[in-house]
Design brief:
Elements lengths: L2 E3 L4 H4 L8 H17 L1 H12 L10 H10 L2 H19 L6 E4 L5 E8 L2 E5 L8 H14 L3 E6 L9 H10 L3 E4 L2 H10 L9 E3 L4 H10 L4 E2 L7 E6 L5 H12 L6 E6 L2 H15 L5 H11 L1 E4 L3 H11 L3 E5 L15 E4 L5 H6 L25 E8 L2 H17 L3 H11 L3
Parallel strand pairs: 1-11, 4-5, 4-7, 5-6, 7-8, 9-10, 9-12, 10-11, 12-13
Antiparallel strand pairs: 2-3, 3-14
Helix pairs in contact: 2-3, 2-8, 2-9, 3-8, 4-7, 5-6, 5-7, 6-7, 8-9, 10-11, 15-16
Length: 424
């Protein structure tokens, strides 16, 4: 049963320990080294070992894409296309342009944006398939102008990628799709193999082995984030519908036994009613066993004196998903400082953001919303600055630059200026 806390300490009640995976880290390190050394052969062996897949040809063929499209009914395909439209509308507003400053004397300073050349997208395919993740990770890359978008996803013994995954990948703009998952897929994207191209940046969610692999290859390739288990925090007052709140808590609890679902409220009556509603809803939830363990281990209801205090608690926790289930949610929006994605009002369940509304669902977890952001177009572009000086303007600046360099003991820096203006 979900526990109620009247005196809270976020350190005591939230388990966000990211260490203690020494065995898994060692296993991942070995897989990375093996794939780097042997390429496709190592990928195939790990696919068979971990997923039961004995597929030799790792790349999805044109026929498989066509078969996937034919396998889906028209209504489902239209849902995918509608979601693409919404997600694209939101992410197109994130596109930035550079700037240029022209100063007297011909000095030019500027900044330009350049998309990365090749993005690697990891899409989980273990206990469930996630076409929504396909859309959320490929569309921002496509809008950013990435020329090659390489997707990897695990398959089982039959060697087939689920048709909804392939349809979403093609519709969103994936360049190529490969049948591999786990740490071996991250290794393939980081180092490149005979078949799978090396990616400049790797994005997407996954299990602990995927996340540890992303962490270890950072520097060889860029990564979006090291994502932990899913989280939801609901702020609600006594006017909230307890059945709605319970449903939203369980919407994240069903993801993973390590997922965290938290309600912060100023109403003890609501707390007790939500506690009962969670039990009622659990009884009929398809993923009951997963959600039950998540709720019993990590579920929390925190009582506090006001909604303002609830927001303070939320800002300290910095949740991945934050719902504000009150009648006038916008009056609290500016007070919310730390959250991955914010869902305002009583009719905005987190599931809207997962699938359809348009904002991204690849979000910072584990409190990292204090310093990081949802996946966006920004993750697929680089910024470069540029400078132009005339000889005359360099002469004007030379004394200050040379003095600064000498103060740091870097005479070579100073000389690189002086030699141009006759001040050696």
């Amino acid at each position: 049963m979900i526990k109620i806390y009247e005196n809270y300490s976020t350190q005591d009640i939230l388990n966000r320990e990211i260490n203690g995976y020494e065995r898994e880290e060692a296993a991942v390190k070995a897989i990375l080294a093996d794939v780097a050394a042997r390429g496709d052969d190592a990928v195939r062996e790990y696919n068979k070992k971990f997923d039961g897949s004995d597929v030799y040809n790792l790349e999805v063929t044109a026929k498989e894409f066509d078969d996937a499209e034919r396998a889906l009914d028209a209504e489902y395909k239209q849902i995918i296309l509608s979601a693409i439209q919404n997600i694209s509308l939101f992410h197109k507003r994130q596109v930035k342009s550079g700037f240029e400053i022209k100063k007297d004397g011909g000095v030019v300073l500027g900044q330009k944006y350049t998309p990365i050349q090749r993005a690697g997208v990891y899409v989980p395919g273990g206990t469930a398939s996630y076409p929504s993740t396909v859309l959320m990770d490929i569309i921002p890359a496509k809008i950013a102008g990435v020329s090659e978008i390489i997707m990897v996803t695990p398959v089982k013994a039959d060697g087939a990628v689920k048709p909804e995954i392939l349809f979403a990948a093609k519709a969103a703009g994936a360049t190529r799709v490969f049948k591999t998952g786990g740490a071996q897929a991250i290794a393939a994207l980081a180092y490149g193999t005979q078949t799978i191209p090396k990616a400049d940046k790797i994005v997407g969610p996954g299990n602990i082995y995927v996340q540890l692999a992303k962490k270890q290859v950072y520097g060889i390739a860029g990564i979006d984030m090291v994502a932990g288990p899913s989280e939801i925090l609901v702020i609600a007052d006594g006017t909230a519908n307890p059945a709605y709140v319970a449903a939203d808590l369980l919407s994240q609890a069903e993801h993973d036994v390590l997922a965290t679902a938290v309600l912060v409220t100023n109403s003890k009556t609501l707390a007790l009613e939500v506690q009962k509603e969670v039990e009622k809803a659990l009884a009929v939830l398809p993923r009951q066993s997963v959600a039950r363990k998540s709720i019993d281990t990590n579920g929390k209801i925190i009582l506090c004196g006001s909604i303002e205090k609830a927001i303070e608690i939320s800002n300290e926790i910095a949740p991945e998903h934050l719902e504000v289930c009150v009648d006038e949610p916008f009056k609290y929006l500016d007070k919310i400082k730390n959250a991955g994605s914010i869902f305002l009002g009583k009719y905005t369940p987190e599931a809207l953001g997962d699938y359809y509304a348009g904002s991204n669902h690849t979000l910072p977890t584990g409190g990292s919303a204090k310093f990081s952001s949802p996946l966006s177009v920004d993750d697929f572009v680089k910024k470069s600055s540029y400078i132009y000086y005339t000889k005359e303007e360099l002469e004007k600046a030379s004394y200050n630059v040379m003095a600064f360099a000498e103060s740091e003991g870097l005479g070579g820096h100073a000389r690189s200026v002086g030699i141009r203006v006759g001040k050696e």
